[in-house]
Amino acid sequence: MHSMRDVAIVGAGPAGSTCARYLARAGHDVILIDKEEFPRDKPCGGGFSSDIIDEFSYLKDKTDEFLDGICKVGILHSPNRRISLHSRVEMAVALRTKFDAALFDAAVEAGVNTRQKSFVKGVQIKKDKVTIHLSSGDQIDCKAIVGADGVNSIVARKTGLNKMWSTKDVTPCRVSEIPVEQKEIDEMYSKERRYHFFANFNNLPGYGWIFPKLKTVNVGIGVMGPKATGLPMLFQRFIGFLEYKGLLPLNSDISAAKGAIVPTGGTIDRTSCERCILMGDAAGMVNPLTGGGIGYAMQAGRIGAKVLSKHLQEDNLSKDALKIYDELWRAEFGHEIGPLKLVQRLFTSSFTSALFEIGSRDDELQKMVASVMTEMDESKPSTSSIAARALLVCIREAFHLRKS
Ligand SMILES: Cc1cc2nc3c(=O)[nH]c(=O)nc-3n(C[C@H](O)[C@H](O)[C@H](O)COP(=O)(O)OP(=O)(O)OC[C@H]3O[C@@H](n4cnc5c(N)ncnc54)[C@H](O)[C@@H]3O)c2cc1C
Fold it and tell me: What is the pLDDT of residue 226?
């Protein structure tokens, strides 16, 4: 029986498992708690930048276990479907069941203790420790707690760091991993494995996606909070549209479709307090435009582990001491999220189709649009640079100027 762990991490998704692994490798006594048993599924597109595999290099030895291919060409379709922008931007794809299991295994291999099928229902932060209450009635004491428990984070609620998301800050989605014969996948998406985004499907703010994988095609649709009603019907409609377009076999099996929400309204104000830090979806660390959060969750996991390790050694887990965590993740990737919120507004406005029309006539604008949608480009353009480029193209064409 352990009297006191160094760190208890609630949630073994990309954020929690990554954080746990780094802490264990730094020599700390860590317990990783999840309500599910691994391997477990998580409703998701499962698309991410292959840079993640380079950045977290221990994953390189595990790609056989989780990687379901690299999609080579992204196609963005305008809301009125008249324009399709093609872009050669690679995206790795995985089934979350396998990807998260690989991250979980990496944490276990590093010496992390785990507690699966254990639902955390309460958290008490005291002066000298944190007490975690499980629904089984058991308690776990630790010096610090990490809230990596996803969009409906109990840790965020119990610590008061985030009481509740407002409707405008979330994007409800419906997603299905549809089994498709590999031969059909080759025919429909070519050997290049073309992946598609459909902006503002049915004129609703948000987008639909198709990511071809090894033996499945991941199809999903998300609509920004206030407008998200009747998603199952909309999803059916999207499937019908894709079947009609020859992007899915007729009568595709969507019986496994699930609903889930993504926190797309930007990050919460404060992600640390006395003896506690939050990361991943629990803190709203998601690209507001695409809903992508796997990479941010893992980056925050690494940063959080570094901060906790240092402050455990110094025996100072005060609110003021842990504030450095907020500063570090904001400096590494958080600064991108605010501007992307503005790009999200641009992409979900009545201006979107016009932007595609203009973009189809300008290579540079196409590159900018593609890079914000696919998250692959290091130089993520801002809303103002996209708007400025669009304006430039309009002026150039109006005055018949040469391309720059
Ligand atoms: C439909 C959809 C599509 C998406 N597509 C993509 C995509 O293609 N690419 C991308 O990068 N991102 C995508 N995302 C976002 C991505 O899934 C998240 O950003 C990412 O999973 C965040 O990781 P996390 O570790 O913070 O949380 P999660 O992956 O949600 O993990 C949280 C863990 O906490 C556990 N947990 C929760 N509550 C408790 C509790 N009370 N007690 C114990 N355990 C608990 C859960 O079981 C879970 O294992 C998508 C999201 C959705 C909903």
Answer: 79
Q: Is 247 helix (H, G, I), strand (E, B) or coil?
A: coil
Mean pLDDT score across all residues of the chain: 90
What number is the ipTM of this complex?
0.99
Neighbours of 64 (CB within 10 A): 7
- For the Cβ of 120 lying below 6 angstroms from any atom of ligand 1, the answer is yes
| C-alpha closest to that of 264 among 231, 234, 227 | 227
Tens digit of pLDDT for each residue in 225-259? 878 789 999 999 999 999 999 999 999 999 999 99
Query: Residue 373's pLDDT is what?
Result: 61
Q: What pLDDT does 290 receive?
A: 86
Ligand 1 atom at minimum distance from 220 CA: 1
DSSP annotation string for 335-397: HHHHHHHHHHHHHTSTTHHHHHHHHTT-HHHHHHHHHHHH---SSPPPHHHHHHHHHHHHHHH
pLDDT of 140 strictly over 90:
yes
- 363 Cα–ligand 1 center, Å: 35
Domain borders along the chain are 5-68+96-165+266-336, 70-93+167-262, 344-398
Mean pLDDT of 277-306: 96
234 lines ligand 1 (CB under 6 A): no
Q: Which CATH architecture has domain 5-68+96-165+266-336?
A: 3-Layer(bba) Sandwich (3.50)
**Would you say 212 and 249 are in contact if contact means Cβ atoms under 8 Å apart?**
no
Is residue 119 lining ligand 1, measured as CB closer than 6 Å? yes
Tell whether the model's pLDDT for residue 376 goes beyond 60. no
CB-based contact 92:54 (threshold 8 Å): no
Superfamily of domain 70-93+167-262: D-Amino Acid Oxidase, subunit A, domain 2 (3.30.9.10)
CB 297 within 8 A of CB 148: yes
Ligand 1 nearest-atom number relative to CA 279:
26
Strand order in the sheet with 74-77: 84-87, 74-77, 195-199, 206-212, 216-223, 171-179, 258-262
3-state secondary structure of 236: helix
- Is the CB of residue 373 below 6 angstroms from any atom belonging to ligand 1? no
d(CA 286, CA 150): 11
